[in-house]
Amino acid sequence: MGGEGLSSPNEETHVSYFYPERALKERKFENFARLQNHVILSGVCTECTACVASCPENALEMVDGRPTLKGKCTACGVCYNVCPRTRTHVNDLIGDFISAYKAKCKIDAVHGQDGGVVTGLLLYALREGLIDGAVVTHKSKEEPWKPVAVVATTEEEILEGAGSVYSHSYTVKALIDAIKKGLTSLAFVGTPCNISAVKKMQGFPAGMLHLLMRANILKIGLFCMDSFSYDGLRTFFEEEEKIPLASISKMSISAGKFSVYYDGDKVASYPLSRLDKYRASSCYFCSDLTSEDADISVGSVGSPEGYSTVLVRSPIALELLYNAADNGYLEVEPLDRQGLTSVLNLARVKKVQLYTVKRRRTYVVRVPGVPLAELELKAGPIPLEKEAVEGIKLTGKSPVKVVEYTLTNNGQELLLILQNTSGQILYDVNVRISHVDELFETNAWATDIEMWHPLEELEFKYPRALNDREYLVRVATKHGPILMKRITIAELKKE
Ligand SMILES: Cc1cc2nc3c(=O)[nH]c(=O)nc-3n(C[C@H](O)[C@H](O)[C@H](O)COP(=O)(O)OP(=O)(O)OC[C@H]3O[C@@H](n4cnc5c(N)ncnc54)[C@H](O)[C@@H]3O)c2cc1C
Ligand code: SF4
Ligand code: SF4
Question: 417-462 pLDDT, tens per residue?
């Protein structure tokens, strides 16, 4: 359909009835286990006792400063919903919006990432003289898939910008350059972090304000779960997977998979976890999926293939969408409940990651060549494993988990990732890695971690010893050892 059937800004919104129904349907997932994972184990519980006080089964008690399940959880969802740390309302998850749609572009020349809605809107706005230009992102001609932010003032330049580039693009600089050149009506396309930057600059009573006051800027925000370092993507595809970036025609992320279309008709898909190490560090601390500060937000989640999900947030954006649909640029339909639920679920994952510090990783590296000095002298017979077992027994289950151990840097270093699974901050932790030769520790390297957050991962790199056989990892607090792990070279080589 075209514009008919769309709501005008004054009509009741299409989505207002969705949330109560969803809340009832999904309630069973909002149980105590979810509260524990999102809030209690991640260390952000404020001990307000709201969950304990409101559990209709009286199943919760405060034990050692933590809400603890003592009875049966019926998954009524009350504890999760009353907690001040959880995000449970639509607007908390995706910001304020007027209405939600699934849409696609009807112009043949537009080859968008999903429904081509962003490019369709820009094309319509440019042809109608509503904008002088638009900040879009092209792919570098010299370095394939490197983002280049440009101010598109022609149809060709707008069409060239269609599609997603999964690395940070320097969009705000391009916007300011355009305003300095005298363009006053601009569309700005960006990820949520780009959009928030522009919103903040517009409201900041100093610096760029005089420039931004001169321009009308329509902020078109993309949904964004994460972005990757350009060098990281190049290493992954060109060096690890032997797929030259120049041969890739499209990249896409969907349902936990990163897919590339290359050499004409070939497709390769990888679990996102394989690219985790190349994820931009900023994105671990980002909680905005849907560009909450935009006039209109567009993403793929929530709509079928070939369509985009659209959240309209300002009256002017609604009018633009409405007119683009009426003039045959876009096909637009209200987003159904299932679509909105998918957006909300993904948005919740992103909100929660901000305070679930398990994604935070601290790097501790022993630099090869730097003498071990005193530490080495202290190395001696290996400590009895019994000692560690006793220590761990005292704390119940192991408070530290070995997430990964492997050889890295062409086999020259031992890479070890440990996670604090104790559910609380561990203070003054001593981590000691050593090489075991017969019954003696050599090359012992100890490092003190002042504060280790719940679920935080520590990544250690330890240069390999000559003729190595086995390594010993010992983690201790001032109360004694909490982890003891022997790693043989044979195990490492199997990785
Ligand atoms: C880094 C990144 C991560 C994303 N993650 C998700 C996600 O997790 N879930 C989801 O639903 N959607 C995500 N998207 C949005 C999705 O990929 C599409 O951009 C969106 O659905 C719009 O599709 P379209 O076909 O309507 O847009 P198109 O018509 O293809 O237009 C896309 C517009 O985005 C601009 N653009 C491309 N790359 C960048 C960039 N790096 N920075 C700024 N602008 C850019 C282009 O210049 C173009 O104007 C992401 C996009 C990006 C850039
Ligand atoms: S309601 Fe939330 S913050 Fe308050 S005690 Fe329970 S888990 Fe902690
Ligand atoms: S995840 Fe956040 S910080 Fe990362 S690119 Fe997307 S909006 Fe920006």
Answer: 998 888 777 888 888 888 887 777 777 888 888 878 777 888 888 8
How many A from CA of 210 to the centre of ligand 1? Answer: 30
- Report residues whose beta carbon is within 6 angstroms of any ligand 3 atom: 191-193, 224, 226-227, 280, 282-283, 286
Give yes or no for residue 187 CB within 6 A of ligand 1.
no
Q: Decide which of 170 and 285 is more confident.
A: 170
What's the pLDDT at 15?
Answer: 39
Q: At what angle do helices 18-26 and 337-355 cross, to 10 degrees?
A: 70
20-24, 45-49, 298-302: lowest mean pLDDT where?
20-24
Percent of the chain with pLDDT over 70: 83
Enumerate residues 6+ apart whose C-beta is below 8 A from 53: none
pLDDT digits (tens, 9 = 90+) for 211-220: 676 789 999 9
Measured from the alpha carbon of residue 62, the closest ligand is 2
Complex ipTM value: 0.95
Residue nearest to atom 8 of ligand 3 (CA): 193
Q: How far is Cα of residue 233 from the mean position of the Cα atoms in its chain? A: 16
Cα of 166 vs centre of ligand 3, distance in Å, is 10
Ligand 1 centroid, distance to 471 Cα (angstroms): 46
311 within ligand 1 shell (Cβ under 6 A): no
The string of pLDDT tens digits covering residues 92-122 is: 899 999 999 999 999 999 999 999 999 999 9
Domains of the chain listed by start with CATH number: 31-87 (3.30.70.20), 93-227+280-355 (3.40.640), 360-494 (2.60.40.10)
Q: Are the beta carbons of 36 and 44 closer than 8 angstroms?
A: no
Ligand 1 closest atom vs CA 225: 8
